């Protein structure tokens, strides 16, 4: 796996802009740390973290064209905001271009932007690592969120979803319905505890 990660890192260095590449490394290492803490596969976390934004630097129109070419569904929200397609397209490219066969890794890449109900531990780790990696500018409640990432992963996930929805709505930005579904799912789950 380490040789595979090194090979993919070299390739991504040429495909991502410098800032995105630095972010990617931050997510990769944060995901591995979280995986160690939560007792799950660190190599899966490293690879999913490394590839989570592999489609991020593809221009919006090209994202739409590639999704159409490969028959990946595009919602109206995604068509209006093609940057949301990078997770779905990235999961496809992880399998097709980078030859990742592990469904857990592909699912973690696919759900890292909007989340989804019933996320696996790896999916939660990639979603959270993307938000909390050290290079991220401090967002509201970041200190609390970073603490929760290593204490209560579901509460951490819920807090990020809540803060993201508040931010998107306050900015008048489109909200993917899956983000709202995910938020509602984890809200109900945590209320039952």
How would you characterize the overall build of this protein?
The protein is mostly helical and 193 residues long. It is 69% helix and 0% strand. The chain has helices at residues 2-15, 18-38, 42-51, 60-69, 76-80, 85-96, 103-110, 121-132, 142-149, 153-170, 177-191. It is globular.
List the helices and strands and how they pair.
Layout: H1 2-15, H2 18-38, H3 42-51, H4 60-69, H5 76-80, H6 85-96, H7 103-110, H8 121-132, H9 142-149, H10 153-170, H11 177-191
Helix pairs in contact: 1-3, 2-3, 2-8, 3-7, 3-8, 6-7, 7-8, 8-9, 8-10, 9-10, 10-11
Task: Give the tags.
single chain, 193 residues, mainly alpha, 11 helices
Summarize the structure.
With 193 residues, the chain is mainly α. The chain is built from 11 helices and no strands. Helices cover 69% and strands 0% of the residues.
């Amino acid at each position: 796996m380490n040789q595979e990660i090194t090979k993919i890192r070299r390739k991504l260095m040429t495909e991502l802009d410098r800032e995105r590449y630095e972010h990617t490394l931050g997510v990769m290492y944060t995901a591995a740390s979280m995986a160690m803490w939560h007792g799950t596969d660190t190599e899966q976390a490293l690879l999913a973290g490394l590839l989570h934004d592999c489609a991020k630097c593809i221009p919006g129109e090209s994202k739409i064209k590639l999704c159409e070419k490969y028959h990946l569904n595009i919602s109206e929200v995604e068509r209006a905001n093609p940057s949301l397609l990078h997770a779905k397209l990235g999961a496809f490219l992880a399998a097709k271009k980078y030859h990742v066969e592990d469904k857990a890794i592909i699912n973690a890449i696919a759900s890292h932007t909007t989340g989804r109900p019933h996320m696996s531990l790896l999916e939660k780790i990639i979603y959270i690592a993307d938000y909390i990696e050290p290079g991220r500018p401090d967002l509201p409640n970041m200190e609390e969120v970073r603490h929760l990432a290593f204490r209560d992963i579901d509460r951490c996930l819920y807090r990020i979803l809540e803060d993201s929805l508040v931010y998107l709505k306050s900015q008048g930005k489109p909200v993917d319905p899956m983000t709202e579904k995910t938020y509602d799912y984890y809200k109900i789950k945590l209320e039952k505890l």
